[in-house]
Design goal:
The chain has 88 residues and is an all-alpha fold. The longest helix is centred in the middle third of the chain and has 23 residues. The chain is extended, with a radius of gyration of 20 Å.
Length: 88
Amino acid sequence: MNFRKKASVVRLRWKEQSHEGNAERLRHTRSLKAQWQQTLDDLAKGIRRPDKMKAACERMDRMREENRKLFGEQNSAVDLIRETRDQA
């Protein structure tokens, strides 16, 4: 008997809508879908790509900083934890 778990394969199925004037967005969506599919395939195969991981971390850091500048410091989690603790 083989008790090894088979690697699951994930396939993205996005419904693409064709609207006039949305060619750029459709191109972007297809590109994003291809990137996601490559990432999922790599993940399923156990392939790690340190350069892509580093780039993703840097991108997340930039987005976090932009959000902080736009919305200020957000401490909603702290408030929720204190509220829950006080109710107990």
